[in-house]
Amino acid sequence: MLKDITLGQYFPGDTPAHRLDPRTKILLVLLYIIALFCAKGAAGYGVLALTLAACVRVSKVGLKALVRGLKPVLFIIIFTGLLNLFFTPGTRNLAEWGPVRISDTGVHNAVFMVLRIMLLIMGTFLMTYTTSPISLTDGLERLLNGLKRLRVPVHELAMMMSIALRFIPTLIEETDKIMSAQKARGADFESGNLVQKAKALIPILVPLFISAFRRADELATAMECRCYHGGEGRTKLHVLKYEGRDYIALAMGAVILAGVIVLGHFGI
Amino acid sequence: MNEMIETESLRFAYPADEGGEPVFALRGVDLAIEKGSFVVVLGHNGSGKSTLAKTFNAVLLPAGGKVYVEGMDTLDESLLLAIRQRVGMVFQNPDNQIVANVVEEDVAFAPENLGVPSEDIRRRVDEALKTVGMYEFVRHAPHLLSGGQKQRIAIAGVLAMEPECIVLDEATAMLDPVGRKEVLSTVHRLNREKGITVVLITHHMNEAEEADRVIVMDDGKVAMDGAPAEVFTQVADLRHMGLTVPDTVDLLDRLRRAGVDVPLNALTVEACADAIAAEIGNLK
Q1: Distance CA A257, CA A29 (A)
Q2: Which of A156, B23, B59, B64 has a CA that sits 20 to 30 A from residue A125's CA?
Q3: Residue B181 maps to a domain
Q4: Which residues of A touch B (CB under 8 A)?
Q5: How far apart are CA A115 and CA B250, in angstroms?
Q6: In the predicted model, is pLDDT for residue A5 greater than 80?
């Protein structure tokens, strides 16, 4: 049952979208998000939707996987849509039932807000689908390198993130094992109301936490034995390097952002 | 200088529980481990064998006495990295010593920490993985491998430091017989072909058969020290310390007690079979 948890899922591949430097992809997603918030009308959104569609096509990820990513946030999308639809005052009311009314601005806002959230999520998902977690942390570490001067522990944060990613499958496996062990002792996780179900989780969480602490202790010793002493003087097996394609992709991203801003200026 | 690791009246105590006396896990150990040798350290739980191993690369520091690695004092903090680079350590649980989620990244972890240039890391990673026979898994996710394979990745991760000595702290305890065999044949090969000193901590007697030297720990002290044939023939003493003897010695011991005149020091299965066959020949 725990097998289908997908956190930062990655679809390995060898397309131009996979080969881009992770830093480029992070920056492009950033540009894309800024553009999404600058877009004002159908033309702007159209350009961004087409851009996303082109990227999806190049990455060969498949629209189905992307749409699947929307499922967990479906509730938020619907909620935002309805909120905008019913509670935006406008110049003209299209329908009215007592205190509830739908205005023309309401419809406009609802449609574009839903579109914005959907494009936002699909865009960021496309990045995590085409970038392995390890190169993503690598990219983040390098991008934030400048913050080291402000005493932000960039290396430590990146190390924590990659260790957390490394231990997700191990801990999921362990949770499965503990659940089976508790079930064998007569624990019941399925029946009862919400409170009872939450209480039933305690016999899983306590051993899981104890074992996680023991693992952390052993891992720290093992890392020390392999000469880990913080980020100072550390080298890398894979050194990130911007290539021609990265500059091209970034230039294209900048052009699209500029285009969307110009379109937004005219209100379309 | 021919000693890889040397200890002088080494003592170590774990901090006591509140109000209690500190528990001495090591009470005066004097050892010299020769370069290029294959040493097995045996002992039952709580005999101090794992504690001893952890003092060899300054994970634990002596509370009394000294530990020298190639003449370097482990108490000297400025030598810490040099010591740990020379003495690599492999632990019991393979899951808790793998750092990265790609095999090659994990093997690269130690050289990355040592600040080795990138091209050099690549060479070391490939070489280490080829040595342990795991090169085909270079881009795999470690959590999908078997226990024996994970442990071989851990050995490769240590080899990438280009150490002089590898300490295996019960590294075979959590493995199935197949995995145990993989790991043991790997370290034996490293010892033979690359001249790497191996210190194998274990409670499996059978793993000690092919060692150059067997050290038996009991109650924080060295109880026996010598060639496998010398140590394992002291059947009564070993049993007294809560240890079993290898199956071959056990069989020969029973035969002797039943009045059959066989030698006790035939440790391997082949030698044991030969000894018994010879005796059967004599009886005819």
Answers
A1: 11
A2: A156
A3: yes
A4: 132-134, 162-163, 165-166, 169-170, 173, 215, 218-219, 221-229, 233-239
A5: 77
A6: no
Q: ipTM, 2 decimals?
A: 0.87
Looking at the DSSP bridge assignments, the partners of residue A122 are none
Q: B142: domain range?
A: 3-245
Return d(Cα B137, Cα B139) in angstroms, integer.
6
Q: Is the CB of B101 less than 8 angstroms away from the CB of A134?
A: yes
Amino acid at B27: R
- Cross-chain residue pair B99–A219, CB shorter than 8 Å: yes
Q: Are strands B23-34 and B3-14 parallel, antiparallel or unpaired?
A: antiparallel
pLDDT for position B142: 86
CA B196, CA A182: separation in Å to the nearest integer?
Answer: 45
The backbone region for A261, taken as left when phi is positive above 0, alpha when psi lies in -120 to 50, beta otherwise, is alpha
Residue B251: inside a domain, yes or no? no
Residue B236 makes CB contacts below 8 A (sequence gap 6+) with: none
Query: Is A102:A86 a contact under the CB 8 Å cutoff?
Result: yes
3-class SS of residue A261: helix
Give the number of beta-carbon pairs within 8 Å between A and B: 91
The nearest CA of chain B is from the CA of A14 a distance in Å of: 14
Sign for the pseudo-dihedral over CA of A229, A232, A233, A237: positive
- Specify the number of domains making up chain B: 1
- Tens-digit pLDDT profile for residues A40-61: 888 999 999 999 999 999 988 8
Q: What are the domain boundaries of chain A?
A: 16-265
User: What is the model's pLDDT at position B24?
Assistant: 86
Residue type, A6: T
Distance from CA of B106 to the nearest CA of A (A): 10
Chain A partners within 8 Å of B84 (Cβ) = 224-227
Which residue among B93, B108, B143 sits closest to A218, beta carbon to beta carbon? B93
